[in-house]
């Protein structure tokens, strides 16, 4: 279960054998309504032209928003499904890390909307994303 007692090391362990592990996503902070992580810009996250792939940025954004929603509703009581993700890629990055901050902007009973800004190590905006999650309440909770 993901809750306020979950450590960053425990969150990181959840990434084993997943896309998040392949992309090198590292969680830095998690609290209600906010998630922060970083991702390397390397051969696993770049496109052939040597810059950060937009899909890598979008995977980072969806990961953070989904984790944030799971934290809010209780991962053992509900499932989170990404239903809509948009991104505007502003600046190219060729090396180092990108740092993403996900902030909830709507917390409904069945939907959550997150704004995720991805910046380079100098604080320049790289991508800005908007994620809408659908909260699927488990049958256990409904009974």
What is the second-level CATH architecture? Roll
| Spans where pLDDT lies below 50 across 5 or more residues | none
**Main sheet record:** 6 strands, antiparallel
Number of domains: 1
Structural class: alpha+beta
The end-to-end span amounts to 20 Å
The residue fraction in helices comes out at 10-25%
Order of secondary-structure elements = HHEEHEEEEH
| Rg calculated over all Cα atoms | 15 Å
CATH fold-level assignment? Thiol Ester Dehydrase, Chain A
Strand order of the largest sheet: 1-2-4-5-6-3
Number of E-type strands: 6
Shape: globular
Task: Classify the beta-strand content into a percent band.
Answer: 35-45%
Mean pLDDT over all positions: 93
The CATH superfamily is identified as Hotdog Thioesterase
